[in-house]
Design goal:
The complex is a heterodimer of chains A (197) and B (155). Chain A has two domains: 1-96, Orthogonal Bundle (Rna Polymerase Sigma Factor, Chain: A); 98-197, Orthogonal Bundle (Arc Repressor Mutant, subunit A), CATH 1.10.10. Helices cover 75% and strands 0% of the residues of chain A. Chain A has helices at residues 9-18, 22-44, 47-64, 74-94, 106-117, 125-142, 145-156, 161-168, 172-196. The longest helix of chain A is centred in the C-terminal third of the chain and has 25 residues, at 172-196. Chain A starts with 8 loop residues before the first helix and ends with a helix. Chain B folds into two domains: 3-49, no CATH class; 63-134. Helix content of chain B is 74%, strand content 0%. Chain B is built from seven helices and no strands. Chain B has helices at residues 3-12, 18-27, 29-49, 60-105, 111-124, 126-133, 140-145. Classes of the chains: A mainly alpha (197), B mainly alpha (155). At the A-B interface, helix 2, helix 3, helix 6, helix 7 and helix 9 of A face helix 1, helix 3 and helix 4 of B.
Chain lengths: 197, 155
């Protein structure tokens, strides 16, 4: 992993932050806040939670910055923290929830169907896409945190298998297997609903 | 090609064996439906990916940094307090230890220890101690301090 270039002020900001300089950390936050917000939003999926979760990510990163030794780029290191934090957040949020469509009660299945069917109108491609988007969003929300993380990184953040492997510290082959399984489960639920509509 | 393999290739989007997959889909309704659903799901996911991402509120970076510095300042204050209190406690404990040692070791000559020695000596050598404490029994009074006037023989 490439570390920051020597002429990049980021190195100095990181060193100053490691000495407890909050102003330098504000500069780092400004540089990475959009990327962090994007990742958090796609992981968490709720606008109202994004800023709070992103703030927690930056607090965690600040507290852990002493252990950052420039082995990976700061962006990669920060994204790892964001992914792990979002994973924990999803697990907490999911504690009282069901997972896939196939595991939902009849009532929940009807709710998902009703939500999607409410948008079913003339059947134009745009409307069909919006309908698919709603259902995909609902199914993603119900996916397990493991599946959610890997699907978000691949399908929404559009990262390569190698990039996901670097972020999650998994082997590329493991990422491929997990991605395949996650897609299969999501597709299974999507198809199940598709047959019903 | 078997349905299972075809579906695996569809989901992995590897693009491998494309002509064989297409040939299979043309003749297999179930796999064709599977492929259609996958395409719809991918379109739905692409729509989600295209959603505009919420922007950080104005001053987000400065706010987070300020909160962190405040928290850090409070932590340092509490650490300093604990350090001061801890240091005082250590000093007090050291002082108490020194005093205890002094009480146990030094006062061989102090009144407390010397009275103890006197009692001990009294118990082991009663005559000596009685002679020291009560000079009357030492015989010195009889020998030196009292002179009896000699009676005239003629009276």
């Amino acid at each position: 992993m490439a570390s920051a270039r020597n002429d990049d002020p980021e190195v100095e900001w990181i060193r100053r932050t490691q000495r407890g300089d909050g102003d330098a950390y504000a500069l780092l936050i400004e540089r990475y806040q959009r990327r962090t917000f994007s990742l958090v939003y796609r992981m968490v999926g709720r606008r109202e939670e994004v800023e709070e979760v992103a703030q927690e990510v930056f607090v965690k990163a600040f507290l852990a910055i002493g252990s950052y030794h420039f082995e990976a780029s700061f962006g990669t290191w920060l994204m790892r923290i964001a992914i792990n934090h979002c994973y924990d957040h999803l697990r907490r949020r999911r504690a009282s929830r069901l997972t896939y469509f196939s595991e939902m009660s009849n009532e929940s299945q009807q709710n998902v169907e009703a939500g999607a069917e409410s948008q079913q109108a003339s059947g134009s491609q745009l409307e069909l896409d919006l309908q698919n988007r709603e259902l995909a969003q609902k199914l993603l929300e119900r996916a397990s945190p493991d599946d959610r993380v890997i699907l978000t990184l691949k399908e929404l953040e559009d990262l390569s298998v190698e990039e996901i492997a670097a972020l999650t510290k998994l082997k590329p082959s493991t990422v491929k297997v997990r991605l395949h399984r996650a897609r299969k489960r999501l597709q299974s639920d999507f198809e199940r609903w598709g047959r019903r509509r | 090609m078997r349905c299972r393999r075809v579906r695996q290739l569809i989901i992995d989007e590897s693009g491998g064996q494309a002509s064989e997959v297409a040939q299979h889909l043309a003749g297999c309704r179930a796999c064709s439906s599977y492929s259609d659903h996958w395409d719809q799901l991918r379109r739905g996911l692409r729509r989600i990916a295209a959603d505009p991402v919420p922007e950080p509120s104005w001053g987000f970076a400065q706010r987070v940094s300020r909160h962190l510095q405040e928290a850090l300042g409070m932590e340092r204050t509490s650490e300093a307090f604990l350090e001061r209190t801890g240091r005082r406690f250590v000093y007090a404990a050291l002082l108490a230890t020194v005093v205890l040692f002094l009480v146990l070791l030094v006062p061989r000559t102090s009144p407390v220890r010397s009275s103890g020695a006197a009692v001990e000596m009294e118990l082991t050598q009663p005559e000596t101690s009685a002679a020291q404490n009560y000079p009357l029994f030492s015989g010195q009074f009889l020998a030196n301090d009292f002179e009896f006037a000699a009676q005239p023989e003629g009276n």
